[in-house]
Structures are given as C-alpha cells and as structure tokens.
Amino acid sequence: MKTIVNAEVDIRDFYNVEQMIKKFSKKVRKQGIIDDILKKRYFKSKSDKRREVRSRAKYIRKIEKNNEAKKRSNKS
Q1: Is 69 left (phi over 0), alpha (psi -120 to 50) or beta?
Q2: Which of 27, 40, 42, 59 is an S-S bond match for 7, by CB 3.0 to 4.6 Å?
Q3: pTM for this entry
Q4: Which structural domain range is residue 73 located in?
C-alpha cells in the first residue's frame, strides 16, 4: 500500500533559500516521511517489531511509575 504525501513550500519573493529549506524540512519531519523511510530501510521481522513494541511499552510504564512516585513525594 503506497501513501502519497505532498510536502510543498510556496515560493515567495521575501523568502531566501535557507528559510525555504528549513520550512520544507519541517513539513517533511512533521508528516513523518523521514521516519517511514528509515523504518523501511532494513527488513525487520514480525518478532522484532513485537519485541520493540513491548520494550517501548515497558519503558513508558517505568517512566509513568517514576512520575507518580515523584508526585507523591512532592505532596508530602
């Protein structure tokens, strides 16, 4: 399944080239084009993907647990 993504920058007289490049790269980053390209660069098996998701979830739970502990200690 291919996704068509358009990242366009309007050419205006008052923009210089550096500003146009920054604006374009910001739009590309926001749309996630670079992330998709980097993810698809190498083959990743289903088990690797699942392992990655589990490890990310574990990390998030750990951070949330630490944040809750900090909130409880600040209330005292």
Answers
A1: alpha
A2: 27
A3: 0.48
A4: 44-76
